[in-house]
Amino acid sequence: MNHDRYDDAYITGILGTVKTIAMVGASANPSRPSYFAMKYLLGKNFIVIPVNPGLAGQEILGQRVVTDLASIETQVDMVDIFRNSAAALEITRDCIRLKDKLDLKVIWMQLSVRHDQAAREAEAAGLKVVMNRCPKIEYGRLSGEIGWAGVNAGVISSKRPRLAASGFQNHVIGVKR
User: Fold this and answer.
1) Which residues in 116-127 are b (16+ Cβ under 10 Å) and which e?
2) DSSP 8-state symbol, 51
3) pLDDT over 70 for what percent of the chain?
4) I need a surface site. Which of 19, 52, 99, 107 has the fewest CB within 10 A?
5) Is the C-alpha dihedral spanning 60, 66, 72, 78 positive or negative?
6) What is the pLDDT of residue 144?
7) pTM reported for the whole predicted model
8) Which CATH number fits domain 8-172: 3.30.70.260, 3.90.1180.10, 3.40.720.10, 3.40.50.720?
9) Nearest to 154 by CA among 8, 4, 2
10) Distance from chain centroid for Cα 163
11) How far is CA 162 from each of CA 43, 81, 146, rounded to the nearest angstrom?
């Protein structure tokens, strides 16, 4: 797969079917990108499991932090790598090793995180891969919410946005989870 550009349908298909996300490199610091990405995803009814060995046993946004991926005892649809590119290969290999235990389907590498060898290995193991993208930003862009901040989402449509059951101004993307 070409990881320089992703079709909207590919990203929508992932974000529309994923329910549980393990966020490797989650931070308890409210000024860190992983913190507000986690907060946004929780607000969209994703289950987010923070993974950070330095904070294991504590809570981030009410979610219990685990030491590593092997410590997770529930199904995980997607691993969101909030670490640098150098760490991505080792984390990806852990994902591949734990793929069946976790029922893992997707490895997502955050903005500025790209590791082509990791992507090749993950895809060879049957996993979908997204690199150098943020699920928070992509969800906001594809749902139309990012337009509230004056950002051009690159999506032109005359359709009214789908609203979440929780009320207005809470857009959801087109695929049901």
Assistant:
1) eebbebbeebeb
2) E
3) 84
4) 19
5) positive
6) 81
7) 0.87
8) 3.40.50.720
9) 8
10) 21
11) 16, 28, 14
